[in-house]
Amino acid sequence: LLFSVSNLCGKCSPRDTDLLQPSLNFLYWSLHQTTPCSQQRAVAVLLSNVSLLELLQKVLECTWLWSPPSRPAHLSSEDALLCSGWLLVASFLLIQHRYDTEVHQTLSVDLTEVLNAVIFRNKKPILLLVSIMQFLRAVLRQNFSSSLLVIVGQNKAPGATQPQPSSLQDTALHPLAMQQVFSLVVSLQNLLVHKDLLLSQAVVACLETLVEYLYVKNQDVALHVASQPWHRFLLFTLLSGGQKSFLQPEVLRLMTLFVRYQSSNIISQKEISQIIQEAAEANIAELSEATSCALHLFLSQV
């Protein structure tokens, strides 16, 4: 069935949304809702299908080609297809790396376009933003070195890939540039203020992965990003309103990030004590799974 559905996808165009969107979702869940042994076989079948990968290439490119002003307030069939495409490609990247699966056809993605999608948003629905951030996390976790993916930048001259780094810091962070990093961090902070649960989870996860990537590339840059004073204002913003408790998943995960990178100007001993006090007084059985996991990570880090 996996073989048949992937072949069917390869015969479609991105405009066949009614057929493609459920088909790509089927491929996605076939990869994730199975045993490790079957997952390895499944990803091998899918990555050997050149027509499927060519179709996915076209779907990803439609993210920049389809006009943002035409998007309705709700998730359109076109945007739903884009979400499925980005999530499936992110899964391919992670699972192909896990099993070192042979690659028969590469995918090409413009890193500048991906970053700008998050930085400027351009009326993109929340679910599409989340899907693109999942892709961004996947490439960050692999240090932009996946054999399945070719990263290109603004320089579209024949044979060109990323623009050449303009400073020592840019060289260390390549293919990212310092300006892109700071713009991305500010945009992620702004998205957190929306207090949408799905978006918050994706944003915090993306921020965690970004700082981990930076720490490997240049520790000074990572610590500088993690200790930006704006983070403290962000925490106060997240704690304002109806739910003032520190025991919110996104707040706990942010706190864990700041403790990990020793950002004492963002989180003090007083806040750490408050969180531990709240945890001691809370009914653990009533906490959501996301909160329990985030609290466990925070206490382990402390």
From TrEMBL:
GO terms for biological process: meiosis I. It comes from the Eukaryota. This is MEI1 protein. It comes from Leucopsar rothschildi. The gene is Mei1.
